[in-house]
């Protein structure tokens, strides 16, 4: 049964998403449009399956899956293939490998899990995947696979009714609990996984089952108000939520309940309700092409941005115009692909088994093409065709104006040029709170402890080289995103409780068994729990850590490294002959709340501060490429290569801190 209010609601949902992606002011929470779609899907699919069971006495799985395949796959495959082709034209070669990996995962209906495994932060990703918007289609496709099986199992042991409502309710409750727990433990998994999102589909399913049992869920006198309230809840989420909102978590209940309320309230076509707005021709048109618009808007945005270059920023009004231009493209996709695939007599009359076989063949073919493309993508040379003289680090640094063919690490290898601590499991992840010391060098030599977050870890290659040369016993205590500075931090917008526990326990261990020297190093622009006076927080926290440790041993602080704000490898891949463009003015790269605090705290506690900024920046410029060495593996982490090269510079200052 067609419902104009749901068609209009689709328009509201897709409009919120695309305007959010375009960065249009007022739509910071527009990502909740996907949650609206999930509730709508749960309502329609559950109603269809339950009605089919009621009318025919069975659920025809193959027929259901074939219908879903005709509905979503042709348009999805068309955009997927076009995006793969476009990636070879506009996506920088350095990013093409990950792009094609994501394409293969998308073709196999698991892009959401690919993003979860990589820890993608959908709400804050600075270099988003070309196929990142397909995550929600992955969730829906997985829902379409498992939901009819669950309903069939319930029907097999009961006649439906209250038993079915109870099972759907239990699934919703369990999934909602998983959503709340995962949001605090691993936000990417909470955001992308089916089991933390299933309750949103189930919420719509419960409304569908209730409406099958009765004509209306609520009295007519309150349905109009309830409908407008539901629409208002969705609008409130779009306007009030932002990238800083802890999501999904408890916040996702606002759009989910709002959507469920609107669907339930307007079931009888209440003329005073939101249908007055949702039934208007413009919203009906956008609702009709909403699926196609969702598919095409994101690659168009990505391609336009990529064509302009990584160092070019589009204002929101320009991206808004891009979105307007995506509407006719979406209509063409709807007119010539999506709608014909759904209504063509030839396709509709095809046996379900054959439809599913074609769908599987298409998926496999696209996945194989993406994998083959991987072998082509990594053969493109990424250098300026010339070499430069190999030199030792210097103050000021030697700025190379092009990407040399003897650069180390190469642009392809930059992202994986990590300290050995990661491979050895010595760099603790976000969930672990128990200290795990790792020992290197001499067992009996002077004991030096490296203590801090990943910015401490990126100094490990230099310190390990020094330890091997001077016979030190090097011990590491490092944890991702967790500063050794005593300050409250956030992780994925939630309290980083494991960090506080870990830091306290490491300090207690070091006080109980003091080393000869503790080296503190940290990222000075983290996600603070309290945004007021960040510099003051950092100074007080660093002084507190130093005071606790200096009572039992010597302490030295390594000043933080520059933050280039953009991925230098990706930038250099676009500027092979103009490499200087990938650096930043010193005033930008050296701006962070904790940098001045380090100077103040070490001066107040008479603690040595090793500041090697002169080896990274001139007074005016901080380059990404120094001599023949790529200094950064991302915007602010050193490559293991450059860290090791700085051992000779760091060594005398470390010896001085030890009193040598």
Q: What's the tally of helices?
A: 27
Strand count: 13
By helix and strand content, what is the structural category? Answer: alpha/beta
Radius of gyration: 28 Å
Major β-sheet, in short?
7 strands, mixed
Helix content: 55-70%
Instruction: Give the N-terminus to C-terminus distance in angstroms.
Output: 83 Å
Average pLDDT, rounded to a whole number, is 92
Strand residue percentage: 5-15%
Low-confidence stretches: none
Structure characterization notes:
The structure is a single chain. With 660 residues, the chain is an alpha/beta fold. Helix content is 58%, strand content 7%. It has helices spanning 4-21, 33-56, 61-90, 93-107, 111-117, 135-157, 162-185, 187-192, 194-213, 220-240, 253-265, 275-278, 281-288, 290-308, 316-343, 345-348, 352-377, 420-423, 454-457, 460-470, 497-512, 534-550, 568-574, 586-589, 593-605, 640-645, 647-657, and strands at residues 427-428, 438-441, 447-452, 473-479, 490-491, 494-495, 517-521, 554-558, 584-585, 609-610, 621-622, 625-626, 629-630. Strands 1, 2, 3, 4, 7, 8 and 10 form a seven-stranded mixed β-sheet that branches. A two-stranded antiparallel ribbon has the order 5-6. It has a two-stranded antiparallel sheet with strand order 9-11. Strand 12 (625-626) and strand 13 (629-630) form a beta hairpin. Helix 2 crosses helix 11 (253-265), helix 3 (61-90) runs parallel beside helix 14 and helix 4 runs antiparallel to helix 17. The termini are far apart. 48% of the residues are buried.
